[in-house]
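Job type: complex structure
Entries:
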Amino acid sequence: MFETVLVAGRGEIARRVIRTLRRLKIRSIAVHSEADAGLPFVSEADDAVLLGPADPAQSYLDADRLIEAARRSGAQAIHPCYGFLSESAAFAERVALESLIWIGPSASAMRSMADKVAARRMMAAAGVPVAAGTDEPVLDVDAALAAASRLGYPLMVKASAGGGGVGMGAVHDDASMRTVFVSAQSRAERLYGSSDILLERYLAGARHVEVQILGLNDGRVLPLGDRDCSVQRRHQKIAEETPSPAVGPQLRARLFDAAVRAGTAVGYVNAGTVECLVQPGSDEFVFLEMNTRLQVEHPVTELVTGIDLVEEQLRIADGQDPTFGADPPPPSGHALELRIYAEDPIRFLPGPGTISRYAEPSGEGIRVDAGYQDGNVVTPFYDPLLAKLCVWAPDRAAALARAAAAVGEFVVEGPKVNLAFFSRLLADPAFASGDYDTGLVARMAEDYKAVTGKAR
Amino acid sequence: MAPSGDMEERRVAEEIRAEMVANVWKVVAAPGDTVAAGETLVILESMKMEIPVLTEAGGHLVELAVNEGDVVQEGDLIARLD
């Protein structure tokens, strides 16, 4: 096993990876920007290297500085966490060229999934269902309007090189296509350096269900479980649970089969996630995207399986077998993750600030992965995730009750925080029933407006 | 984004202030513009999120206090409408 691993992330995920490294007696090297010097992931690592200023381009996204940090610290491997360079095939390739180990899939598997247009074609060929959409990149508004007249509305406008819901927009007619296409394209260019756009059938009221896979060195791809990520604001997840209350045994078997096909088609080795949309009122689903890295919401799978996914990632990258035998342990119980963000609980607008008081809930079935502690400054430079409140219980009702109590105990003062949203979510009849979809948060906002007479 | 000015009966200049620490990503409007209610004046960026700063009421944009690339603190003046 590796002696020293460089952790190329920040906040809660870097801290979480470092925790596993320490348990396995592997030396951990944190890298950080000037703005993050006071955060727990820096002090908890065995060693820390300052990369540069707060601007990610001069710190967490600077490949040269990361490689240099790995060299100087004697690291044999790099764990990419999520975000930043974690899905950069070019960086994964560079790491290999520098004779370092990339704790993740091959650069070629990453590249296959990075371009959504190409990934769609490859998935369809592998027998994975895909939504109706464009098979070539859409380059301008006229082409988009022509494609829309062929496909029909509603459609989702996506950056082909994007992911995670950033810069996406649903369009219902030519007028909204004109506006959304232009803004999506400018964002795509700015964020991903490619203005290629993909149009796909927009499934209103769909559920977002994903499958955690683990590709082994012997070529097998194992499904470890599903996660329901339908609680979203701005097309981005804020709460996840496993197992999905919308998925029965037959649908689960088909989702797992599709995920294994997707992973196998690209020769996937290490941990990854195949995201799908399940159509409302039916057991049909389509491929959404594959995330070639550890997901933010991986802890819920860990809570029901007892697997440490970071440990499995390390073992696989080191050429070893997983910790379990022939088959992964079957999941037991129900787990929930709530993303505690530095943003207000109604409009979800970010609010950085200094944490003046911080107290985590604890107890049976409670796990908190936090990036901050008392006195830390939440800066405006990075995403607003403060902590993940994860809860396990023998069944869903008990998990929701345990989560509600834990939300009530969680204290964050200083920055804005969305804890109050989760109190409303856990009390919401649709969420409590398990019968909800990606429109839930927007409907909750409407209800809130109707009850309180205010939108903010 | 703007203070609502509920207490004022007379129509006075409307000041639009930043609600959070943010970078000014894009300036959309220009001084002298006549803007409608709900129109985007500038787009801020904080914590990887784009936040459009909208007018609450329509009017005449007399001052735009920020430039692209500026950092604004909570409460900083962004624009003044007449």
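Summary: The mean pLDDT of chain A is 95. The first strand of chain A starts at residue 4 and ends at 7.
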